[in-house]
Amino acid sequence: MSVGQQARADRIRQMFDQVAARYDARNRLFSADRDRAWRRRAAQRAALRPGQTAFDLCTGTGKLAHELLPYVRPSGRVVGIDFAPAMLALARRREPEIEFRLGDITRLDEPDVSVDAVTIGFGLRNLVDRDAALREMFRVLRPGGRLVILEFAPPPRGLLMRAYRFYLSRVMPALAGLLSAGEGSAYRYLAETVEAFPEPAELAHQLETLGFAVTVERMTLGIAALHVAVRRR
Ligand SMILES: C[S@@+](CC[C@H](N)C(=O)[O-])C[C@H]1O[C@@H](n2cnc3c(N)ncnc32)[C@H](O)[C@@H]1O
Fold first, then answer.
1. Is the pLDDT of residue 233 over 90?
2. Is the CB of 152 under 6 A from ligand 1?
3. Domains, the chain
4. Distance 84 CA to ligand 1 centre (A)
5. What are the two backbone dihedrals, phi and then psi, of residue 230, each rounded to the nearest 5 degrees?
6. What distance in Å separates the CA atoms of residue 151 and residue 129, rounded to the nearest whole number?
7. For residue 126, how far is its CA from the centre of ligand 1 (angstroms)?
């Protein structure tokens, strides 16, 4: 990673550490409570069975990892990884059954072809080196294993989406700034990264090039997308 990339990653980590205490409540508020249903759907699409191993990357406060747990119980395991200590501290407090590791997901410790499913919820958009992370996800998955990516999609065109764009880029940052001093910038960052993120078809193509078979599902008028990518070989 270059010095510039490292500096950007440090800023992202600091931002998440700063918002950690309010992160879950803000998600609920700004998504009108849809975020829980999105994570549940993502966990279901991982198609895990009892005894299997799942990795939830960019796990944050552990909410998606938590949704995976019922599928692998009683003998399987869920591991959550994140590089922001304050987010992980909340995750550990919530779910002692899950192993939460502090680490950078662009460099996983796990051996090749050792994991049954990898999930990443609202994390891919935040990565400084997305390509390196996707290669790591492919590497650790066994053939037939699934990568499930839950992410905001760039809003489709249309009148309703013009209103959504206004909400995302103006209303949310203003409201967040009012609720807590300094938080507005975190939500401006959110709006910028959502707009800059690849269209679902483009991300699907990138995953296919890596060796995945991909299906895409758009949710809630297309503002969130699920990519389900099965490792081919
Ligand atoms: C928007 S939060 C998503 C948290 C959680 N997955 C959810 O569904 O709410 C993004 C998380 O990605 C983490 N993150 C960003 N880049 C990372 C990296 N390279 N390695 C590990 N964690 C990273 C941040 O610390 C943050 O907790």
1. no
2. no
3. 3-151+199-231 (3.40.50.150), 155-196 (no CATH)
4. 7
5. -100, 125
6. 16
7. 7
